Input
Amino acid sequence: MKLPVAWMREFVDLPDGPSPVADRLAACGFAVDGIDDDVVDFDVTANRPDALSVYGLAREASAAFDVDLRPLRLAATPSGAAPVRVSIADNGCGRYALAVADVCVGPSPEWLRDRLASAGVRPINIIVDITNYVMLEMGQPMHAFDVARLAGPELRVRRARAGEPLTTLDGIARTLDETMLVIADRDRAVAVAGVMGGASSEVTDATTRVAFESAWFQPGTVRATGRRLGLKTEASARFERGADINAPVAALRRALALLADLGAGTVVGGLSDVYPRGADARVLTLRRARLTTVLGTAVPDATIPRTLTRLGFDVAPTDDGWRVTVPSFRVDILREIDLIEEVGRHWGLDRVPAHFPALASIPRASAPGVSRGRLVRRTLCGAGIQEAVTFTFIDAAAAAPFLADDAVTITNPLSEKFAVLRPSIVASLYDSLVYNRNRQATDVRLFEVGSTFSSTRGERTAVGWVLSGSRGSHWSGDAGAVAFTDTKGAAELVAEALGAPITAAAADDLTWLARGERAAVLVGAQRAGWIGRLAETRDVDVPVYAGELDLDVISRAAVSGAREIRPLPRFPAAVRDLSILVDERLPAAEVRGTIRSSAPATLVAVREFDRYQGKGVPSGQVSLSIRLTFRHADRTLTDAEVQQAVETIVDALVQAHHAVLRGR
Output
């Protein structure tokens, strides 16, 4: 809320300049978004509708600086009945007050126009400006109707009829429904209650008699109506947070006082106040011992009633504390802890000593999932993959490739971008990858540990990652682009860190992954995740490799106990590289299986280091480069022994997979 400090000074004595005021109120919980000359822009939280006004923040300043708060100047309550009858036909309106005045419409004086403009409100004419001035000053929205343009001298609060038309003050013709609360004359709706008035009863330069309205509406009713109509106004922002049910009459009296001071009109008749059910005052108990326990320090007894009284509370002492009556404008004060917060923020949280409480018992161990998540994060960060944190709500189109039939949809989403709960973490991470690549980050490697959701399996904890670009740069040369082996390596790192043996197996049901570069990750016979290259890469012109593991499945398969530690080898290894042509649909796991089953015991490692399709490779085939590592535990292998082993392996690949050795 933009607040001219000079306006606040009418009610409370303050230090010179806006900065001391801004700093002190910021320390009391009102963040400052900026200062422009004498205007301070305060960020008022949603639970403090009373602070959306000059007088409300002046009250806070009164307590903050320990100075008196001067009262508002109100007109005397006119006696008799108002010329316009008022009735309430729906519980959505708890109170409706009205006064009628003969007026002379024209421009407001310069000081009033300047004050409204500095608070961010456009001046219109003196009558409308008075209602806006009162709203900004007291936080109570008001509206003025042109009485001559009403059908009959009556106003009624009721529900709209289905399909009832109303053109609002913004010039838009709207169709109402029976869920919306309206102000109506004898024949038609003339305003959307708590949101915006209608053009049919708008005050113009030709207006000679107005009806000032000041009411209280149910917050939920105003919020729902504004949302259905797509309308957000200064009035609805206050009503939907919770207005003061005792403010309507005081606001009317303030408007009538301004009307007389400005010479803009005179009251006709009395003031109508329809208040079907009075509200009882809320009374709370504030215990001295509880206050000290929560704040961690003792607040002097004299400070507590003084602070609360300046904030508008009625305070009476009791044996163990105070009996506090909550003012009707403080809709956020519901419990004792709320009173403790009031005392604490004005006493000064900076006065609370900083120390750790003494431990009375040994803290509980973290849940297994917490330590597991830390281990996974540490492992993947160590592999050069950066952690991301994304929303669990995603667009339905982003979720569609990942088990769309099993997705959990949101009944009433904030927007279509948050329509479903993500079935896969990769669905969320992909948007982050696109965002970074669009900002010239060519090598993007992201992971996230979080929840995934499905209608059949419920909520699961998983880790997902996306990789694109190059493996990294080095002075010795380019490391090449990320490939299937990189996403497989990420899965193996996580599984090894958690102590679970995994294998990769071909899977044709992973339709969001490209054929020939996709695999299911298995723990024994149970599927624990998937890895591969995304088949569709919207907004990205390079391959994107991804993977996801169900951490619950992986953890259950973790091998407990001590791990075997072997001594370092004493004899050198012999390395041979093979490049073979095989069918592009052949899983690399089958190639490795054939190699291991046909090789001698001296083969200690098999690793694919390149996969190529393109010029020089027949259609439907792929060039697979494999590195074979041989070592004997007791001696150095001869070249002849290594060559014999390689030839045996090649013969087995030719026989089992019709492989062709390149370069032969």
Q: What stands out?
A: The longest helix spans residues 639-657. The radius of gyration is 37 Å. The chain has 18 helices and 33 strands.
